[in-house]
Every structure is written in structure tokens, then in C-alpha cells.
Amino acid sequence: MFGDLFEEDGDGFSSTPGTGKPVKGRECEPPPPRGKVQLCGIKNQGGTCYLNSLIQTLLFTPELREELFSLGPDELGSLADKDKPEAKVRVIPLELQSLFARLLLADEQTASTTDLTDSFGWTNNEEMAQQDVQELNRILFSALESSLVDTLGSSLIHRLYHGTLVNQITCKECGNISERQEDFLDLTVSVRGVSGLEEALWNMFVEEELFEGNNLYRCSKCDQLVRAAKSAKLRKLPPFLTISLLRFNFDFAKCERYKETGSYVFPLTFNLRAFCEQSNWSDSEYSYELFSVIIHKGGCYGGHYHVYIKDVDQLGHWEAPEEDAKVKTKTRTQEATVTEDKSEIENSVETEDPLSVLTAILAQEESNSVLVDQLGQKLLNKTGTPWSKKYKKQYGTISKFLQTHPEVFLLISNGTRVALKSTAPAAEESVPTKPFSPAAVPETTEAEASDTSDGCHWFDLNDSTVTVITEKDIEKQFQGKESAYMLFYRKSTLKRPPEARGNAAYKVPPHLLEMVQEENARLLQRRNEFDATSNSIEVRLHLAPHYRCENGALHPTAPNNDSIITVTFDRRRTVGDLRLAVYQMQDLWEGDMALTVAKNVPAGLHLYDELTDDQMSLYSAGVCNGTDLFVWNGRDVNGVTVQTGAEWEPVLLTVFRPSAEQLGCGDESGVGEGDADADGMVRSMKAFAGGATLGTVLEALGPQEALLCQEQSCPGADGGGASGWKVFPPQDMKRTLRELSLKDGDALLLLQLEELDSSIFNMNGDIVTVTTPSDCRWLQVEFCPRNGTQEEDAEQDKRRSKVSASGNMLLSEVKDKALQGLQLLDKLNGLECCLRQMDRSGKRLPPVHEHLSVRDAGIRLMTSLFLCPGPAPTAQQLFLYFNVGLAPSDGQELEVIVQESLTIKECLKKMLLMARLEGDSWHLRRLDWCEEIGEPLMDENATLKEAKVLHGDTLVLVEGRLPPKGYLKLSVRMYMDPFDSSSAQELYQELPTECSGSEMRFVGYVEISEEASLDDFKTQVTTLPALHDMCVPSPAFLRVWILDGGKQARILRGKQQTLRKLKLGNGAEVCVQRLMKEEDLGPKDLLLKVQMGVPGEKAYYPAEEFLWDAGRDGTARGLYAALATQYGLTPDNLLLAKHLPDKHTWMPVSNWTQQVSKRKKKRKAEGLHAAPFYLKDGDIIGVKNLLIDTSKEFCTVQDEIGQQRLREEEANHKTRENAGSGDCTQNTGPKKSGTTKNRKPEVALSINVGLFR
């Protein structure tokens, strides 16, 4: 904790000169003792949270724990002999005993399960991979049963956890009952589609599944297919009931698992009488209490487990949260008032409360449920008054009243029947007991429950962390990403003996008690030793006689380590003890001794706060491991007064002065101190107190009339040029360095006034520019003629010139020097030329603006420029690239220089003139980020500057006028029906074909308002020149498809729908199809292409269009019925499938529906427009007539060829991928596959158990 932990010797003080001992790590720290809760957590080995949650649940099952403790070494063996091959040691139960004992009695916050997982035979892979806790529960119990064979505990798991259920099928004709008995370790109940545990159990054990219609049952007694009912009941109830919630399901549409996160209510106590075969037992035999909830947080591919546990033996220390304590106090103050009104309320409930009346009616029913429609009549028979007269005005209808009390009433059979919750009392009780549910929680606070309960409280055991919770917190686990996953109930008849309450050692065998006591003794010894060593800290003492004060900081007088003494001291000792120990070390010390906290800063050693209170401990004084203390008299060091405190912390500054060589003179006073750098400036490091004024700094550095400047830009930055320094104004001379925000390493320039006369320094306002030799760099200029022959190209290689330039030099000056150096003044006499850069691909970049300097133009020194024919743009001009008709490529771009005030229209005319193009049907478009033709420049009257066209941009000349604002320009194609034998075929032959074999021909563009209707668009299409000879009686004889990727995607519907509402965008592609009759599709109509299979062949008859009204019944059943009517067959004689052209496969459309009980809620069937079919316009449906075609295979010969081609392409792709990965195995890591997440393969969970028979 505090670095190097030393042994304490003598008075707790030891000293060593120089550096101390090596630092110990926190791995030596013993585990901390138990916290306030007094319960022990379990360490997570990486992915064993599911194991930890289950182990804690088993630990807090006292009956299992105590029976396991009752098995001695004579039956189980000893862990000391587990490595002996001849010894039969039952390792798993022994390790569980040891772990339980440590969790109960060991004085540590967390225990480890490493020994237990080692006994399972698990490796690091199993410990790091998370598994399902329900699967572990079954496997662990199976391993325990195998390990306890031939011992007194051989039936332990079976007695405590195993129950029996019976499945029965009752013949409706003869009444014969066929039954099959099953043993269960836990009950897996559904979560999807049910509101809670009781409804799920009702569906499992009360509802009957009927076999009728096409789903009959063959009775062994009647020997024929008959109507029957299937049901299940619980025959034997175990002492401990384990319930697993089926939270994880599989989505067949997406082909992936998902987690159910909806609300799922489960009670704290509930009665199983309604679900059992026997109903004549005492009520306590059916009653169960919740004592453990294992919770899963996360998704189906990963997450975290923790557990809520009820402390049955009251082993932990539970304190109510502060808010619950306030509620409890308020409740007690109201207790007297409640008692006074109790008798009066009870009298009124009997006659006025409809809840009690309806509960009494339902409790008297033998079937435990009543039709909602009959409940009103039964109420009239009992009270003599109908519901509508007595209760409707206050409570509403009887159905609404039942729905508002879900904690009492359970609506089943799609809401047609009502029953009492399983926790409702017997018929003789008038008011039911409310189970734990969201509606019931607010009525009973946790504080009230703690007063009336058995004193057992709930805890959250989350691996190493244990916290207190209330029963109300369980409600939060009904739903969400963090929700209940497994429930553990215990019979209410299982009572704990008084001597077990609060006694963690109850029934723990002596040998385990002794083991834990020895472990606790070792832990106590380790903690004592660690406590002593962890409080030992290293302190470095700096002795004043070995230091001098220089530049506002302290420095050792000698380089050796005699000035520093490292001592080890107990931080619990006082400052006075440390001072006395230092006195004893320094025998020759005279006078007062001050101990001051010191710190090494860039300028040297600085002093801060003095330790004055001798009664304060070093810990309280802030002295920690590695603290530096300065030992001195508190006033001066070797006669020099030392300022202490943070405000006087020294600042190390870099001071520049002009060198004598730079000024062209010999050595002078104040010039030449320090070392001259490559810039010719003299650099020196000076330290000043942070509280010193700038005037004091100037006085220390030079004469008062000198200028003191602060650096503004770094010398030699990219782009070249001189460095700038800002002169401090006179008012800053009275400000301190800290106020001026000067910090370590900041640079200052000291400059005398006469030095400003040199050519090196230039002052403009309060900015001093320094031009040093390193700024005078060069640029290489190369001459590039526009069209050079081979001889000129050879000569061009020699036409290079290195021009000396600086960052401040104008580019026009660079060009003039280059012309002189290249000797081109005579050759280019009267011809304009400009300077251009070139990118890595060899493309010439736009000409530079010659009115800018090298630095402002962003040109780096020591790079190349190219002297090219052509004018250079001025400050108000733009250089643009442009291309005609297609995206730019090498050698096809044209260049133009225009005024930025030019309009788009004027710029277009100039580009057309340069490209020698005529006509007005042209417009300009930008290039998008992927170098493709992008959006058009719509406002032709806007200037280039307003349109945000920048210097060096590329524009594209595209043929065609721009549509006006609010208009759309749509590309129209004509669909050719191959079976159309009309005269239109002659028209189709004349239209241009886009590709061979295409069914669509391009017919032109249509410009139309986005507010125009679909009929208006169809009418305008018929006016296209290419369709002038086509006869269309009305727009209803045309069908319009939206194209997506060149394929028909959907049909546009609605004659008067505007194109904007139909979501047509500018530039969209549509396809027009001529019809033989009028068509007006509704919003729910689907146009399908139906193909009837040829019997006995892998082929189909020609496709026919089929209009299906999916609004009536959009399910598979509806499609079967519609096609059956079309072909004059019954739905059972048809078999349908959807064609998937991309995969060359067929997806069968099943007409099968599961036979369910009439009382069960029927889920709404999914329509074919949803997953997994996603049926849309134009889809191909294959039809098989089972009366004449027994083959259920839909694939054709073309499909098989296409599938073979896809397999070959996939194999080739894998071959190339493997070859590529094999070549670069040494250099590359694993690749990510697309957007899917690579998950580790799931490995089955297992526990290795020896043979003990």
C-alpha cells in the first residue's frame, strides 16, 4: 500500500543511506476480514459467476448443507489421500464440505472455488467461459449423486429435490386414461406470452390440450382414432422446488437466439394445490416460500449472474436502509388509528366490498374457475342484487373490476374465465391473501414486513460483494436485461431449530471446525504482520549543510549521496518522534531543527509546508511513502534566506540572447553567455521564484532599458519562415511570473534597442521577428512545358534550379528567381507562367496564388515546385478542373480560371466554350467523396462563392436541363411482356436495349412536379416520343414499378397519390408496364407470379399473375385459401413455396397450425409480409397439386445449375482466402468477418466423477 514495507526494529525506526529496499507488492496483503454484513462472498475465476450463484444457494439451503456435513471421513475419505491411486476419495463432496465451512466460519470477505473446480476436472478454459446455471445445477447434482453412491447420502439429492409429475391422456369416448409418470429435478416454465409463474403453471397443469379434428388420438381400448384430452399433474412434491425460467429463445426469422425481457411476476409464497393430482392433503403440504433468486444480467451470448438469497438461519447482519426505517416509524405511529377502525372495516367488507364477495364465490367453486359471463348471475344469487345496480357506478363493469385486481384474480382462456390466484385462501376465508406482485408491493412496506415476519432477511450475493436488500428489490427482477432466471422455493413446513438461528457452526463437524480455526489463526497472524509492515514508510531526509541556494532553488553542493539519508519509520508515530530520531542521528546538530516537506522541480529542490505539530502522527501530517523532508534551521541555508510555499515555487525559463557572431561583433558584456545553437542564438537556463515580478527578472538578466519578449511561434516550423516574439508591455513588469502564466520551459528573448538596427531583427508594433540562418532554406523549381517532345523532355531534366527562399518570401519573388536561374527570361518573353505543385500520382495541383508568402501558401521549404505555362490566379480568382459527361480520369480534365464572383450560369457558358460544346441542355454537377458524379448545382444565378465552390474543385458538365425547383426528373423504362402477342411487339423491337436478354427498354426522361398525381405521371409517360405509337386507353391500363438495382421492387398504388407521398426522389428509376385491362390496386393487395408445377418433371407451367388481397388474411392460411379458390381445389391438396432467385432455392410456405386448447390464448399469426418470407410484389410462388403430383421438391434443373455455380464460387473464394491467410500468417492476426461478431464455439459443460461402486 505504501511501497517498500520494512520490518520494525527497536523504536520503529531504521535508517539506510541512499536508496531503500525494493518495494513489496500488494500480493503480500492478506485477505480482509468479513465486513459489516458478516457474510462471505466468492471470488470470480474469470467466468464462474454462475457457479458462485449456485454454490451460495446450496450453502443457504441448511438441510442440504447439514446432511452433507453429516457424512464423515469414514465414508468420504480424506483430501490428504486424494493423490494416492489406491485410495477411493470422494473429492467433490469433500471439497464442497470444505468450501461450505470456509464460507460459514472463515474470517475473510471472499472464498475461492479453485479447489472445487479442480475436483471437477476443469481447466482454465472452463473457468473462463460462462455456462448456463440451470445446466450446471443438473450436472452438479448428478455428480453429487454419483459421488455419494453406497453412502448414507446416496439418496440426498433425490429426497430433497426430486419430484414426480404424471401425464394423462383421457379418451372422450370411453373414458380410458393412459398415464406416464416422470421424475423431475426442476420445472422449466415458459416466459414468452405469459404474465407470471402462476399463469405458466396453470397452462402446464390445469389447461388441457385437446386432440380433435385432424389431430385425433388412437385409444388403446377403443382401438380407433378418437377425441381426447391431454393433461399433466404434480404427483409428488419435493421439499425444495427448483423452477427455471425459459428466458432464452430462438428467432427462426433472424436465425439467432434472443432473451425474453418482458415482465414476469413470481410470488414470495404460493400454493400448489390447484396443480397437484392429490387435493386432500393438508394446506401446508402445498405451500412454498421463495428463498433464492438467481439473476442474469445481459444477453443470450454473455452476461453476469448474481443471486438474491433469504437468510433462513439469520447468519448475516441486516440493517434496513434509511428510507425504510423512516417508513417503519411512520407506520407505527398510525398503528393505533388502524386498530380503532379495524372492527368497523371488517363489518363493512362483509356486505359492501365486492372483492370479498367475488372471492367467496370463486372459492366455493369445485372447478376453481368460473366463466366471466356467469359470475354476475352467481353474484345475484348470493346477494340478491345485480352488479349493475350495486357496484357498476363505483367500480365499472365486472370485467374491468377483475382486470384491476390481478393480485387476486387470474384471467384465463383468453379472458373468458376467471380463477383465484393459487395463493388465495380456502373458501371459508372472506378476504384473500395477496401474493407478491407489482400491484401488491406498495400496500405492504418492507418495514412492516420485518415486524411481522420470522426475522429472515434478503441479501444480494454478487461474487465477492454482499449487500443487504429488501423484498421490494425482488420486484425489480421481474423484467429487463437484468431479470430473474432461476427460482428456488422451500416448503413452508421446513422449520429451523432455535439453536441454528445465528449459529454458523451449527452441525459443522469437529475436523472442519478445527481446520477453519487454524486458518483463522493464520489469517490473524498475517494481518498483524502486514499491519506492521504496511505502516512502515520510507522518508528521504535532505540535510541543509550539504545544500546551496541558487536561482531560487536548492542544489546539492556535491554530487554524492551524502546529502540524502533514506529512513524507514512507522507512519503511526508522531512528528516529534521523527524529530527526536533525527536529533539522535545528527550528533553535531546545533540549534533549532525544522522539518519541511520538499519536492524536486525542474529548477531544483523547493520547500513547501513545515511540520510544526509534534503531537500529530505522520499519517495525519500527510507524510507518506517516498516523501522528501528538508532538515534545516527554518530560516536560511548557508546564510541565504529561502522562500517557502507554493507561491514561491521556482520556474525554469529558457533565455535567448543574440550571439556576437550573429550581430557581427566581438564578445561584449552580457553577450555570449551559454551555448550558441544552430540558429545562432545563445541559449541559457535561468530559474526564478514564481512570486518574483517580471521587473525583477529583467533586472537580473540585463539593463532596464532592454526589451523582454515571449515566444509566439516555434522557430523552424513547417513551411519555414522566421520566429515571432511578443514584447512584454510596461504594465506587465509589476506582475509575477505566476500571474503571467509562465511555466517551466517557456522561452524569453532579451534584446537591447540598438540590436534592432540589424537585418536579423525586425520590430512591427509589439512583435519582434527574428530571421535566423536556419530560416533561409531553398525551394527546387522545375520547368514543365505543356506539350514536350522527347528532346524537350530530355532537356527538361536539366532545367531545374534550387532557389533560396524563406517563409516570408512572396511566391512571385520565387518565380522571378527561378526564371533567372533557369535562364528562361528570353524564351518565355511575353508568355504567362505559374508555379504549381504535384501530388504523389503525378497530377498537377492548382497554381499557387503568387501574392501569398511561402508560409501562407502552406508550401514546405526544401520541396519542389513546377514552372508551368499559363496564368496564375489572383486573390479573387478560382482555378477549377472540369470534365464533360463522365467522372474525371487521367488526361481528360480541362482547366479554367474564373472570377469567384461569376455565376454558375456564366461559368457553365465559359466551360462549354472551352470544351467546344453547343446547346443549352447542359448543367454542372459536383464530384462526391468517392470521385463519382454527385449533386447538381441547382441555383444557376448564385455566384461560385455563394455556392461554396472552392479553389481546385472539380466540376462535371452533364447533358440535360435541370428540372425547376419542386420538379422531379425520372428515368423511365418500358417492360416488355414476352407473352404479349399484340402489335406492341413491333414497338418493343424498335426501342434500344440496355443489355442482351433484358426485359426492360429505356424510353426517356420525364420532368414532372412532385405534387403531381400518379395518374398525371402515367399520362405524361404516354407522351414520350418512344411511346407515341403505343395505344393506351386510360392511365389505369399502365402499371408503374419502382426499380431498385435494376430490378422491380414495388408497384406504385393510388391514382391520386402525389409523387412526393409515394416517396419518389429526383433521379429515381421507374418501369412502366402496359396492361390488357384496367387495374387499381389497394394498399393491401399483393401482385404475385404463380407457377403451377408440371407433374413428374422439374419444371413449371408459364407464370400467371395472381392478385391476392392480403388485407383479409395475410397469413399462409389465407394464401392457401385464395389459391385453392383460384384452382378449384382444397387447401389440403396444395403445397406452396416462395422462390429465392439469388440463392436458387425455394422456401416452403406451410399451412400447418398447431392444435391448441380452446381455452388457451391463441397468438396472432404472423403475416407473410413479415419474417421469414417478406412477401412483396412480383415474388414467384410455386404451386404443387398433390392430387396429381406427389413430388414435394420445388427446385428446377436451372435451380440446381445455379446452386452448383454458387458452391463453386464459394469454394474458390475459400481457396483464395486460405491461400492469402497462409502467405501472411506470420504478419497478420485474425480477421473480422463482416459485421457479424465472432463468438467462441460453445463447449458442453461436464464434471468428472470417479467410480465408487
UniProtKB/TrEMBL annotation:
Top-rank lineage group of the source organism: Eukaryota
Comp. bias regions, Acidic residues: 1-11
Location of the USP domain: 40-492
PROSITE patterns recorded: USP_1, USP_2, USP_3
GO annotations of cellular component type: cytosol; nucleus
GO MF term list: cysteine-type deubiquitinase activity
Region (Disordered) location: 1-32, 424-454, 1211-1242
Cross-referenced Pfam families: UBL_USP40, UCH
GO term, biological process aspect, one: protein deubiquitination
Presence of keyword Oxidoreductase: no
InterPro entries reported in the protein's UniProt record: Papain-like_cys_pep_sf, Peptidase_C19, Peptidase_C19_UCH, UBL_USP40, USP, USP_CS
Keyword tags: Hydrolase
Polar residues compositional bias, start-end: 1223-1236
Gene3D superfamilies for the chain: Cysteine proteinases (3.90.70.10)
Protein name: Ubiquitin carboxyl-terminal hydrolase 40
Organism lineage string: Eukaryota, Metazoa, Chordata, Craniata, Vertebrata
